[in-house]
Amino acid sequence: MFHAIERELSWRRENGKPEGFEALRACKPVVAVGANRPLQDEMMMADYFRETLPPAFHPHLTPEQTWESLFFPSAQSGTVPAPATAKAALAHSQHSLFIGSKTPAHQEMLRILKENDPETVTIVAVGPLTNLALAAAEDPETFLRAKEVVVMGGAIDVPGNVTPTAEFNMYADPTAAARVFALTSPRPASTMPPTNPSLATHQLPAYPTNLSKQLTLTLLPLDLTDQHRLTRGQFRARTTAAPQTTTTTTTNATAVVATPSPLAAWLTIILEHSFATLDALYPGHAGDHAALSLHDPLCIWYVLTRAPPLPLPLPSSPSSPPPSSGGGVGWQPSAGSPEDIRVETTGQWTRGMCVVDRRGRRRRDSDDDDGARFSDNGHWLSDSSGNRVVRMACSPGAEGFGGHMLERVFG
């Protein structure tokens, strides 16, 4: 991606266009390598979207493999670097868009939280929560310095997208999700996933009993993200309607040669594969009507445009927000937020399912003890147990989000 953006910036300069990407150029992000497997299970992949993307890796679209030396330490410290390594180091020193780190991603996360004031760093998780769970287990109090953790994931009142009940990010590492969600609870032990005796030496430790605060976690589930879409027609219209050209002069003639945006070319290869997959999987997704849900971009839009996180507990609301995320009502949490949303980790058919209590049972008295009872298995009815997740139910509007995103990317 950074390679494609660098080529795009060069192309824009050569064609006299505004470069854009001001924030990226002004503040280089640190890029670190995360965990390569879930906490307790085999790696799960959304293969129907990610298994084959060979056209995206054409030589002119791909950086040299020397990039690997930016992230992985040398096997033998103190040795003279190989020519390829030296070449990568030079390229890194001249790199304009990111800082490569050899530190594991979860430790980079903790470093940033330590080096900044509490309540100033927002973490946006648009994949499985493995790295967040590792950071929280290694240093819970430092992890709780985060202002807010924004999570794309889960399915509450809609079907899942990888199984009938589970969204991919929750399904890929349900144990990690359950552990991170547990930090929102007044009593994290009440919602921690069960331990597996066969993995005793590899399991993360329990959290301390007296943590300084609860984690503020905002969830953007499929219920909301699925309504924000980009159609193939929108993408093609924005990237091909007015192709850029340059004029070249030879000894015999002057010719106009098409020079398409490198970023548009790169994204076209990736998105056309995704649109073709939608054509095959879902009815009504043919041609320009094929629509890709903008799950991850919506989380970034939320962080850029939302007001400060709402204080907990949230005031009660007489009714739930409308099911449509449009309407220009702004960012609105569900009426029940913060909700006790838990992640199933051991179910044969429900792995990664987001579980909520729909029974309408009377809550236990606040001064009641919190011991296990036949009438409250799992401590669902206690005010001192359960998770406290703020679930976003409405955005400023789904209708124009795809076009707005393209405008921000291409200017």
Gist of the model:
This protein has helices spanning 2-14, 22-26, 47-50, 83-94, 105-115, 130-138, 140-143, 168-172, 174-182, 222-225, 232-240, 262-281, 295-305, 401-410, and strands at residues 30-31, 99-100, 122-125, 148-152, 217-220, 229-231, 245-249, 254-258, 291-293, 332-333, 342-343, 354-355, 390-394. It has a domain at 229-293.
Question: What does this entry look like structurally?
Answer:
With 411 residues, this protein is α/β, with parallel strands linked by helices. The chain has a domain at 229-293. The chain contains 14 helices and 13 strands. Helix 11 runs antiparallel to helix 12 (262-281). The radius of gyration is 24 Å and the shape is globular. The model is unreliable at 51-56, 242-248, 250-258 and 314-327 (pLDDT under 50). Residues 313-324 have a biased composition (Pro residues).
Task: Provide the fold topology.
Layout: H1 2-14, H2 22-26, E1 30-31, H3 47-50, H4 83-94, E2 99-100, H5 105-115, E3 122-125, H6 130-138, H7 140-143, E4 148-152, H8 168-172, H9 174-182, E5 217-220, H10 222-225, E6 229-231, H11 232-240, E7 245-249, E8 254-258, H12 262-281, E9 291-293, H13 295-305, E10 332-333, E11 342-343, E12 354-355, E13 390-394, H14 401-410
Parallel strand pairs: 1-2, 3-4, 4-5, 5-13
Antiparallel strand pairs: 6-9, 7-8, 10-13, 11-12
Helix pairs in contact: 5-6, 6-9, 11-12, 11-14
Biased composition (Pro residues): 313-324
Pfam families: IU_nuc_hydro (PF01156)
Protein name: Inosine-uridine preferring nucleoside hydrolase
